[in-house]
Design brief:
This protein is mainly alpha-helical. The chain has helices at residues 4-28, 33-50, 54-76, 82-91, 97-121, 130-156, 163-172, 176-199, 209-227. Helix 5 packs antiparallel against helix 6 (130-156) and helix 5 (97-121) packs antiparallel against helix 9 (209-227). The longest helix has 27 residues, at 130-156. The chain is globular, with a radius of gyration of 21 Å.
């Protein structure tokens, strides 16, 4: 079995590839097929360095296939680009299911926050809709704040909502129906604000999801590299 140094060299190569993917996606709104192919073809070396058996390899291939199918559905719905689909499927070959789940959550938070922030800036201003514009901005800022809170909680290994804040909410809304009503009100406000943001888009924005995917993968890789000799 190859040494730990070889495994770290592979991780370094993957990290560089992810930085290149993020840069090209940000600059050209596309990720080169050769880069995604290189990430996928290097995965067997990673499996070899970790001493994977056939069952482990089958799990990784199954995870990549499932990821590709789901991402293709998102591509058909015009929620992801083709390069993003290929990059995500290629990365599924490198991460264990639990770790890949962390990548997906972080990607969704980072990408979602960036998407709604860009959409808010892309709104067309119409006279007589200042109140709706303000609602849209409140929703956008709230989503970005929520995404940042989740990312911070994952980074610091703390709960998203502390027990002290839960106590405050419980004192303010002592009855279950009060909490349900407040939750429903927040959902309605979010849907109204989000609908207004989407209705007032000047043009369709190409969201650089490759940046979110790369950032999430690099985050999980870095966290695991610091916590264990070999990332598994």
């Amino acid at each position: 079995m190859p040494s730990g140094a070889f495994s770290y060299a592979l991780l370094l190569a993957l990290a560089i590839a992810l930085l290149v993917a993020a840069f090209t996606d940000l600059k050209r709104r596309e990720i080169d097929n050769t880069l995604n192919l290189g990430i996928a073809l290097a995965a067997p070396l990673w499996w070899l360095s970790l001493g994977f058996g056939w069952s482990d390899v089958a799990w990784q291939l199954g995870l990549a296939l499932l990821t590709f199918v789901i991402a293709c559905v998102l591509f058909a719905l015009r929620q992801m680009g083709g390069g993003d689909v290929k990059l995500l499927a290629a990365l599924a070959l490198w991460f264990a299911p639990g770790s890949f789940g962390q990548v997906i959550v972080l990607m969704a938070m980072i990408g979602g926050g960036a998407s709604i922030a860009m959409a808010a800036f892309n709104m067309e201003r119409v006279s007589g809709e200042k109140l709706r514009d303000a609602l849209g901005w409140v929703v956008a800022l709230g989503w970005v704040w929520a995404a940042a809170s989740v990312v911070y909680a994952l980074a610091t290994h703390q709960p998203v909502i502390s027990s002290a804040r839960l106590d405050v909410v419980h004192r303010a809304l002592p009855q279950a129906w009060m909490l349900a009503l407040a939750t429903l009100a927040v959902v309605i406000v979010f849907l109204l604000g989000f609908r207004h943001i989407m209705r007032r888009q000047k043009s369709r924005l190409p969201i650089p999801y490759g940046v979110a995917i790369s950032a999430a993968a690099l985050w999980v890789m870095g966290e695991q590299a610091l916590s264990s000799p070999i990332v598994g």
